[in-house]
Design a protein that fits this description.
The chain is mainly alpha-helical and 315 residues long. It contains 12 helices and 2 strands; from the N terminus they run ααααββαααααααα.
Length: 315
């Protein structure tokens, strides 16, 4: 067990290193000159050359990467020139809002996905199975940003039950109930697609488990159908579903970028959109690295949990 954990932890290191290479390369391939975008109307050739020299953009790309990587290893993500503050401070300040949104969406999609998957597997080919499967397919097919706009139109504009944007009310808000009211629509929007994916794969895993010999043996011994379903079959199927949940955690983190823009949620996603528009390279790189590293580490935790549920994986 300890050897397996050590191998999995060590395997994360090259993944994170490759992640930094990809992030840096993508930002380097974006057309346009950052110095020109920063200076705007003051972008004379002399000013552009001076700013490129100050930012280190006049050096070869390989040298720029290793300088940036060395600073990352020392905890220095650079300084945002559009906000004039350290990148890491800005990212962590926004990251708590993203974690709240992504965490709520992940809890929703996991609970609803598992419940729908178990329910439809237990009633295979019944009318509830067909209905929920149809709803799940629609949920997977609907673009999240479009669904978010529809929910805003219905619940915020027409019914006026929920706020349309922001994390707290402008006046008189700031408490937990206010946060929950603002969280409902974006978390629901972000969780719909992931719910459908988890539900479909949970159903498939449950159907496979329900055909196994140990399930027939449990039923022959007189074990109640509820216990057979929720204890024996679900525990065995959960091993196959855990990696899917890990992948969906990355989906909700990545999906938070445009969902935060739709709902004006003050998280890392909205920050990245603003940073890209201003060509704030260091801020974009820092935000993407932090979000991606969290995704990799969460998948590591999922792998370890899967190993705990099924020790055979160690081999």
């Amino acid at each position: 067990m300890h050897i397996y954990i050590l191998k999995r932890v060590l395997a994360v290191v090259p993944v994170l290193l490759g992640l930094t290479v990809i992030v840096f390369a993508i930002m380097a391939l974006i057309p346009g000159d950052p110095a020109t975008a920063i200076l705007g109307s003051y972008a004379t050739p002399e000013n552009v050359a001076r700013l490129n020299r100050d930012l280190g953009l006049d050096k070869p790309l390989v040298q720029q990467y290793f300088i940036w990587l060395e600073n990352l290893l020392h905890g220095d993500f650079g300084r945002s020139y559009s906000l004039n503050r350290p990148v890491l401070d800005e990212v962590w300040e926004r990251f708590s809002a993203t974690l709240i949104l992504a965490g709520a969406a992940l809890v929703l999609c996991t609970l609803w996905g598992l419940l729908i998957g178990i329910w439809t597997a237990a009633r295979q080919y019944g009318w509830t199975d067909r209905l929920l499967t149809f709803v799940v397919l629609i949920g997977i097919s609907v673009p999240s940003f479009w669904l978010g706009l529809l929910l805003i139109l219905l619940f915020a504009v027409e019914l006026r039950w929920l706020p349309a944007s922001g994390m707290f009310a402008i006046y008189g808000g700031g408490d937990l109930p206010d946060l929950l009211r603002h969280l409902i629509l974006p978390a629901l929007t972000l969780s719909v697609v992931a719910t459908g994916v988890i539900a479909r794969l949970t159903r498939a895993a449950m159907l496979e488990m329900l055909r196994q010999d140990f399930i027939r043996t449990a039923r022959a011994k007189g074990v109640s159908e509820r216990r057979v379903l929720y204890v024996h079959a679900f525990k065995a199927a959960l091993v196959s579903v855990m990696p899917v949940i890990g992948v969906q955690a990355g989906f909700v983190l990545g999906g938070a970028v445009y969902i935060e823009t739709v709902f004006q949620w003050p998280g890392v996603g909205r920050m990245l959109v603003q940073a890209i528009s201003t060509r704030d390279i260091l801020l974009v790189q820092g935000g993407v690295v932090v979000v991606s590293a969290c995704y990799v580490l969460f998948n590591l935790l999922v792998d370890l949990a899967q190993c705990w549920l099924d020790p055979r994986i160690q081999t």
